[in-house]
Amino acid sequence: METVSELIKTLADQHGRNRQNLLPILQGVVEQEKYLSESSMIEIARELDIPASEVYGTATFYSFLSYKKMGRYIIRVCKTITCSMKGKNQVLLAIQDMLKIGIGETTPDGVFSLLQTNCLGFCHKAPTMLINSDVYTELTPEKVREILSGYLAKAKEGGDYEQ
Amino acid sequence: MSNSDQLKRADFIFKNENDWEDILKKNIKRSQQELINELISSELKGRGGAGFPTGLKWKLSAEAESDAKYVICNADEGEPGTFKDREILSLVPFKVLTAMAICGHVIGAKEGFIYLRGEYFFLKPRLNEAIHEFETYCKTIHVDFSIRIFMGSGAYICGEETALFESMEGKRGEPRNKPPYPALSGYMNKPTVINNVETLAHTYTIFKYGAKRFYDLGVQFSRGTKLFSVSGDTPKPGIYELELGMSLADFVNDFGDGDTKAVQVGGASGFLVPRKRFTETNIGFQGKLTGISLPTGGSMMLFNSSRSMFNVLDNYLEFFREESCGQCTPCRVGCQQLWRGIKAVKSGDKNAQYLDKLLRLAETMQLTSKCGLGQSVANSFSSIVENFREEMIY
């Protein structure tokens, strides 16, 4: 894996160094690093030759651009009305129970982060969650435990999941 | 006002995409004026919810003089209860791409963008493949038009067209003052046509079958068909293409579970209609002769008698207070105060009359907010509080 500053240079080469390329660059860093550290925001500002405060101000506006260190798998449970009506809370409890973390927290081994999010656009198949960019619909506590077990197995294979 | 006896289903959008090459080739040879006239006479209005006449939008951009112009497909579908645009982009992407290229031909733009919401990232690889195939075909028939996907990053407000431009320009998604309107000064301050995914798909239907076929569907002021995203307490949640102008009673008859107490038309920013108003309410754009007509981006959420309307409003207000861009005070502070206010009434910290103060606050937000987000909070707030006041208190 590239270092962050190498990554930022690669992204800037790829997208361009104009202001309108800022979001794709921020997204590229988040994709690899799972968050935007202060130093990476300063580095991006230098690369695009704009004030670091502008980078910070833009990055923190968007809910998918985290500026706190996140886990390898970010779980986003939809909390909009239809998902709430169809059992979102039970699903959320099942996740919290299994991973032993609360909303907004990351497991100590850095594998999972749990967040709630606004409408994911699957109201007809509620409740719904995203894990990174994969969508899971019509969830039940059983189903969600099965899905997470799959991710846990995958994380173990990758060698960086230790219980 | 024409109340249909039953819902008139249609099947244009998801059908027959494989003729896109012919549609493109045929229409790219037609004159700009001819295409604009066709769109204007179809009376197609924007399907994102606001309902601006599409033909007029294209005409204004076509007439604007500029060295560069853009076509943007707004795929930042974030309204709670709406999920139709995702389905269009998954199932019939070439209709949207073709419509964008025809729009480029009409207004004189060589570049198009699809602003895709971050939540739909999983669509990107397949959509990119479609774009690649589309651009390859364009080259063979000497059409100079390229399309790129711009990913959003989880901000509802970026569906507002000027906030979307700001976002594409690398800034916070804060709406601009209007005018100038995007048709004259949009992305990079150049003339820009920005259309909802569904609107573009409908232009495909119009360019394929002609304006009259589209115009003959629906009712006066609300021509054509519309995709509805149906969710909530319904035995058949999903996406349906229906003619505009139906009465809500007919809709509930077909989609309700027999115990529907209210329908939220147009998502969190739309209106709640209680059972007693189902018959007099039509779904479509407002006009002098159409009675009570509610426009919608397509979100239809049904609630049965087991649901607390307080919980529904609480959920909507939490949504708005999180998604307000924070730029203008009425919206930033108003969303917070409405949310806190209903909780205070519910818990007994404030008396029931406090709801009237909150209704006045909602009215102030409607009058003074900078963009559609703050202006539309009052829609759901007032219609829920006024119709289910007792549920807000006890």
TrEMBL record, chain A:
Transmembrane segments: none
Cofactor: how bound: Binds 1 [2Fe-2S] cluster.
Annotated signal sequence range: none
Positions of [2Fe-2S] cluster binding: 78, 83, 119, 123
Keyword Iron-sulfur among record annotations: yes
Keyword Hydrolase set for record: no
Keywords: 2Fe-2S, Iron, Iron-sulfur, Metal-binding, Ubiquinone
Family according to the record: Belongs to the complex I 24 kDa subunit family.
Protein name: NADH:ubiquinone oxidoreductase subunit E
Automatic annotation (TrEMBL), chain B:
Domain NADH-ubiquinone oxidoreductase 51kDa subunit iron-sulphur binding, first and last residues per copy: 310-355
An annotated Gene Ontology molecular function: FMN binding
InterPro entries: NADH-UbQ_OxRdtase_51kDa_CS (IPR001949), Nuo51_FMN-bd (IPR011538), Nuo51_FMN-bd_sf (IPR037225), Nuop51_4Fe4S-bd (IPR019575), Nuop51_4Fe4S-bd_sf (IPR037207)
Top-level class of the enzyme under EC nomenclature: oxidoreductase
Catalytic activity, EC: 1.12.1.2
KW Acyltransferase (keyword) present: no
SUPFAM superfamilies to which the protein is assigned, alphabetical: Nqo1 FMN-binding domain-like, Nqo1 middle domain-like, Nqo1C-terminal domain-like
Domain of life: Bacteria
Keywords: 4Fe-4S, Iron, Iron-sulfur, Metal-binding, Oxidoreductase
Family named by the database record: Belongs to the complex I 51 kDa subunit family.
PANTHER family: NADH-QUINONE OXIDOREDUCTASE SUBUNIT F (PTHR43578:SF3)
Protein name: [NiFe] hydrogenase diaphorase moiety large subunit
